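Justification of computing resources. Each target in the renewal requires a structure prediction run like the one illustrated here; the chain below, 123 residues long, is used simply to show the kind of job we budget for.
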Amino acid sequence: RYPVIETIEDVLRLRDDPHLKTYRAVIGEYSERLRQELEDGRSKVLESFSNDVKAALRSLAVIKRWSRVVDWSFYISLPLVVIGSLYGLPLSDIVTIPLTSYAKFVTYQKRKELDWILFDRHQ
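Resulting C-alpha coordinates:
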Protein backbone atom coordinates (compact mmCIF):
# COMPACT_ATOMS: atom_id res chain seq x y z
CA ARG A 1 0.00 0.00 0.00
CA TYR A 2 1.41 3.31 -1.04
CA PRO A 3 0.25 6.63 0.39
CA VAL A 4 -2.15 8.58 -1.79
CA ILE A 5 -0.90 12.05 -2.61
CA GLU A 6 -3.57 14.42 -3.87
CA THR A 7 -2.65 17.81 -2.43
CA ILE A 8 0.39 19.70 -1.22
CA GLU A 9 -0.82 19.08 2.35
CA ASP A 10 -0.42 15.33 1.72
CA VAL A 11 3.16 15.90 0.58
CA LEU A 12 3.98 18.02 3.62
CA ARG A 13 2.34 15.52 5.98
CA LEU A 14 4.27 12.60 4.49
CA ARG A 15 7.52 14.55 4.41
CA ASP A 16 7.31 15.03 8.18
CA ASP A 17 6.47 11.39 8.88
CA PRO A 18 9.12 10.04 11.29
CA HIS A 19 9.09 6.65 9.55
CA LEU A 20 9.94 8.02 6.09
CA LYS A 21 13.71 7.40 6.34
CA THR A 22 13.45 3.69 7.15
CA TYR A 23 10.59 3.26 4.67
CA ARG A 24 12.80 4.69 1.92
CA ALA A 25 15.66 2.39 2.93
CA VAL A 26 13.50 -0.75 2.79
CA ILE A 27 11.83 0.23 -0.49
CA GLY A 28 15.26 1.12 -1.92
CA GLU A 29 16.63 -2.28 -0.94
CA TYR A 30 13.80 -4.11 -2.68
CA SER A 31 14.03 -1.81 -5.71
CA GLU A 32 17.72 -2.63 -6.03
CA ARG A 33 17.00 -6.35 -5.75
CA LEU A 34 14.34 -6.03 -8.45
CA ARG A 35 16.76 -4.22 -10.77
CA GLN A 36 19.37 -6.95 -10.30
CA GLU A 37 17.02 -9.85 -10.98
CA LEU A 38 16.11 -11.15 -14.39
CA GLU A 39 12.43 -11.34 -15.35
CA ASP A 40 11.95 -14.85 -13.96
CA GLY A 41 13.46 -13.91 -10.56
CA ARG A 42 11.38 -10.77 -10.03
CA SER A 43 8.32 -12.67 -8.89
CA LYS A 44 10.40 -14.22 -6.09
CA VAL A 45 11.57 -10.77 -4.96
CA LEU A 46 8.00 -9.43 -5.02
CA GLU A 47 6.77 -12.47 -3.10
CA SER A 48 9.58 -12.00 -0.59
CA PHE A 49 8.61 -8.34 -0.15
CA SER A 50 4.97 -9.26 0.32
CA ASN A 51 5.88 -11.88 2.91
CA ASP A 52 8.11 -9.39 4.73
CA VAL A 53 5.29 -6.84 4.90
CA LYS A 54 2.86 -9.45 6.24
CA ALA A 55 5.39 -10.67 8.79
CA ALA A 56 6.14 -7.10 9.90
CA LEU A 57 2.44 -6.36 10.39
CA ARG A 58 1.98 -9.57 12.41
CA SER A 59 5.04 -8.79 14.51
CA LEU A 60 3.82 -5.27 15.11
CA ALA A 61 0.49 -6.60 16.39
CA VAL A 62 2.30 -8.98 18.75
CA ILE A 63 4.60 -6.19 19.93
CA LYS A 64 1.60 -3.94 20.57
CA ARG A 65 -0.04 -6.58 22.78
CA TRP A 66 3.26 -7.41 24.50
CA SER A 67 3.87 -3.71 25.11
CA ARG A 68 0.63 -3.40 27.03
CA VAL A 69 1.53 -6.38 29.22
CA VAL A 70 5.02 -5.02 29.85
CA ASP A 71 3.69 -1.54 30.67
CA TRP A 72 1.19 -2.92 33.17
CA SER A 73 3.87 -5.15 34.70
CA PHE A 74 6.13 -2.14 35.10
CA TYR A 75 3.39 -0.06 36.73
CA ILE A 76 2.51 -2.90 39.08
CA SER A 77 6.17 -3.47 39.97
CA LEU A 78 6.61 0.08 41.27
CA PRO A 79 4.30 -0.37 44.29
CA LEU A 80 5.79 -3.84 44.83
CA VAL A 81 9.23 -2.30 45.14
CA VAL A 82 7.96 0.23 47.67
CA ILE A 83 6.17 -2.45 49.69
CA GLY A 84 9.21 -4.74 49.44
CA SER A 85 11.55 -2.06 50.67
CA LEU A 86 9.22 -1.17 53.57
CA TYR A 87 8.99 -4.77 54.73
CA GLY A 88 12.59 -5.72 53.94
CA LEU A 89 11.95 -7.97 50.94
CA PRO A 90 14.97 -7.26 48.75
CA LEU A 91 13.99 -9.87 46.16
CA SER A 92 11.19 -7.65 44.89
CA ASP A 93 13.71 -4.85 44.27
CA ILE A 94 16.18 -7.13 42.54
CA VAL A 95 13.75 -8.91 40.24
CA THR A 96 10.84 -6.71 39.24
CA ILE A 97 12.34 -3.42 38.10
CA PRO A 98 15.23 -4.83 36.03
CA LEU A 99 13.03 -7.42 34.33
CA THR A 100 10.27 -5.03 33.40
CA SER A 101 12.78 -2.37 32.33
CA TYR A 102 14.56 -4.87 30.11
CA ALA A 103 11.25 -6.03 28.63
CA LYS A 104 10.31 -2.42 27.87
CA PHE A 105 13.69 -1.90 26.19
CA VAL A 106 13.32 -5.05 24.06
CA THR A 107 9.82 -4.11 22.90
CA TYR A 108 11.06 -0.61 22.03
CA GLN A 109 13.94 -2.04 19.99
CA LYS A 110 11.68 -4.48 18.14
CA ARG A 111 9.21 -1.73 17.33
CA LYS A 112 12.05 0.47 16.10
CA GLU A 113 13.21 -2.31 13.76
CA LEU A 114 9.73 -2.39 12.23
CA ASP A 115 9.07 1.34 12.07
CA TRP A 116 9.32 1.36 8.27
CA ILE A 117 5.96 -0.41 8.06
CA LEU A 118 4.35 2.45 10.02
CA PHE A 119 4.96 5.00 7.27
CA ASP A 120 1.69 6.90 6.69
CA ARG A 121 -0.08 4.81 9.34
CA HIS A 122 -1.35 6.67 12.33
CA GLN A 123 -0.50 4.48 15.34
